[in-house]
């Protein structure tokens, strides 16, 4: 829960930079090593933290780095077919009356988590999985 809050906070508090010249060499080198083959990198920065949006193949990803050049987290949007099989099956069995409005993966040094936003006419639910096998309710909002 803290990781999602941190990623969302960081992603909304960045300001665009003029390019890579304001990014530390340590961070640029870490990015180029961890995501070799990345294209269309767009960097933003805030308070000695960095966000880079980029492509690998046809996928769009976002990575977050601290000032020391350490990867904080990386996120990517997913299709439901990209989920582990147990998570796909669970969504089909228990949430078949809902539609998916957002689905993404967060990878960090602590592991990989999946988040899915589901909606019905009355409710919006965000589910989280940290083990790749089970969903837990992260947030539930009654629509007005």
Folded structure, characterized:
With 144 residues, this protein is α+β, with helices and mostly antiparallel strands. Helices cover 22% and strands 45% of the residues. It has three helices and nine strands, in the order H-E-H-E-E-E-E-H-E-E-E-E. It has a nine-stranded antiparallel sheet. The longest helix has 11 residues, at 2-12. It starts with a helix and ends with a strand.
The amount of beta strand, in percent, is: over 45%
Regarding quaternary structure, what we see is single chain
User: Spans with pLDDT under 50 lasting ≥5 residues?
Assistant: 4-18
Average residue-wise pLDDT? 86
The succession of helices and strands, N to C, reads HEHEEEEHEEEE
Strand order of the largest sheet: 1-2-3-4-5-6-7-8-9
CATH topology of the largest domain: Nuclear Transport Factor 2, Chain: A
- For the record, the count of structural domains works out to 2
Q: In the CATH hierarchy, what is the class of the largest domain?
A: Alpha Beta
The total beta strand count reads 9
CATH architecture of the largest domain: Roll
Structural Rg:
17 Å
Number of helices: 3
The major beta sheet can be summarized as: 9 strands, antiparallel
Q: Which overall shape is indicated by the principal axes computed on the Cα atoms?
A: elongated
Q: In percent, how helical is the residue content?
A: 10-25%
Amino- and carboxy-terminal Cα gap: 25 Å
What structural class do you assign from the helix and strand content?
Answer: alpha+beta
